[in-house]
Amino acid sequence: FEVLTDSLDILTDVVAKFGHLLPEQHATIVQLLQPYLDDSRQGIRKRTLHCIGALSPCLSDAQLDAVARHKLGQLKGGALKPDIARSYVQGVGALSKAVGYRFGRHLGEAVPLMVRYGQAAAEGDDELREYALQALESFVSRSPADARPFLDTLLAEALRFIKYDPNYAADDMDEDGGQAGSDEEDDDGSDEEYSDDEDMSWKVRRAAAKLLSALVHAYPDQLADIYSRAAGELVARFREREENVKADVFAAYCDLLRQVGIVSGRFDAADPASPLQLLLRDVGPMLKAAARQLADKSPKTRVGMFAVLRTLVGVLPGSVADHVGMLVPGILLACKDKTASSSSLKIEALAFLRAAMESNAAEVFQPHVVQLSSGIFAAVGERYYKVRWSLS
Length: 392
Known about the structure:
The chain is an all-alpha fold.
């Protein structure tokens, strides 16, 4: 076993660095590697995938097509053991990522297969679902033109799995995300009571959030449709219980906001179906959900939420004017935070406050000057120079 794994590692390094100098050996190498994709040992399959991925950019179109057809053909057969199926699905995604647009001609077969395997994965086989979503993300990022015909399917898969959480039953939150208040402690308590080290469903949700980000970046001309279908789901997932996934949800929502700002000039400002008008209608519920997150115990969550709010203000100046009151408690909580990681939290909170004050009339913040001043004065005494610099 060790001899084989070491040999595969060495071969991977060789083809990664000198593969373009060995064209006459490519067919032989591929022929030798493909049987190991069906090996019963995961370590062998993993190294084989890495080796094929390293070699694939150097392959001719005919050789690359043969490799792709082999992987897709095995998956189409449908008789693979679960662990072997995972390797082939992962291999398809790795191949797409390695060769980019050259894999695009195979998306007619690959996309339906990835969707099928993701949906038909056995209970608890979250690794297969994750690999399928990662492959779909690779298709969108690396071959956006060829993936365009599958936009509706890809978006549906992202939205299906971004809320995939079979091991946790929480009360559905209000559509407007609720408000920060007395029930926040109850929510935090229920989250802490749940713990399952073997629960890998968070990886599926994270992969779905990244797929959604890829769609937002790849198809700005379809942003109105993407926004109308995805924005509400992302805001609902602000309540995500896994911090790593929540960070990706925030990132996906920031990407969506930035794209709204970028494409806003392509639409009539008064068009009710334009992304900017859709965002304007969603500001109230989104800020209520944001206020809830600003009361979260996790500094990382609050930093991410302030970044989202700053992005919102940059895209839609004046958007917080009617909702400042619900955000002030979260700003004060951040400015007066005394935990070890409070510096980055204070910097983000002050950056958002500055951006919000610059984009709104003075009258908007006048009723809250006394409250905000106490938080700002508390931040003045911060030892970390970047916090003080944020106040200048």
